[in-house]
C-alpha cells in the first residue's frame, strides 16, 4: 500500500500513536512507511490483531510484523450521530467500518470511512485503506474508502 495521493475526507487525530509499552510500534512505523502491518505467528501462521506479545494459538512469543495489502470487505459498520469524543464533534455524522482482510486470514480492522457520513454503505462493500497524516498529529492514520468511490471532499494534505 502506498500513501494516498487522492483527496478524501480527513478527520482530526484521535488517540493516534503507539502505546507506552511499544507493543504496537511496528504498526505505526508501518503506516509511516506506507504499509499496513499486522502480526503473524512465525510458528503456526496465525494472523493476530490487535497486537499481542504471544500467539494465542501456539503460545510462541514475538509474532512477526508483516505488511498486508489494505483491501477488504465491510464486515460491519456504524453511523455515528453523537460526538463521543471532542475531536470528532465537528465531523458528524461519520461512519465507522469493521473491515475483514482476506490477505490476513480474515482478521478484522476497525477504522473510519473517508466518505460523507450520509454515504449508502453496505455489509460486503469492497474497501481499500488509505493513509492520512493529520496536520495535528505526529503519527499517520489508516482510513478506509469504498473501492471505486471518488473521494468526497478536498480537506487537508495527505501523505
A few lines on this structure:
The protein has 159 residues and is mainly β. The chain has one helix at 25-32, and strands at residues 36-40, 47-48, 64-68, 71-80, 94-101, 107-112, 126-132, 141-146.
Task: Tell me what you see in this structure.
The protein has 159 residues and is mainly β. The chain contains 1 helix and 8 strands, in the order αββββββββ. The strands form 2 sheets. Strands 6-5-4-7-8 form a 5-stranded antiparallel β-sheet. It has a 3-stranded antiparallel β-sheet with strand order 2-1-3. A hairpin with an 8-residue loop joins β7 and β8. The longest helix is centred in the first third of the chain and has 8 residues, at 25-32.
List key phrases describing it:
159 residues; mainly beta; 5-stranded antiparallel beta sheet; 3-stranded antiparallel beta sheet; 1 helix; 8 strands; disordered C terminus
How many E-type strands?
8
Largest sheet: 5 strands, antiparallel
Whole-angstrom Rg: 16 Å
Low-confidence parts, pLDDT < 50 over ≥5 residues? 151-159
SSE layout:
Blueprint: H1 25-32, E1 36-40, E2 47-48, E3 64-68, E4 71-80, E5 94-101, E6 107-112, E7 126-132, E8 141-146
Antiparallel strand pairs: 1-2, 1-3, 4-5, 4-7, 5-6, 7-8
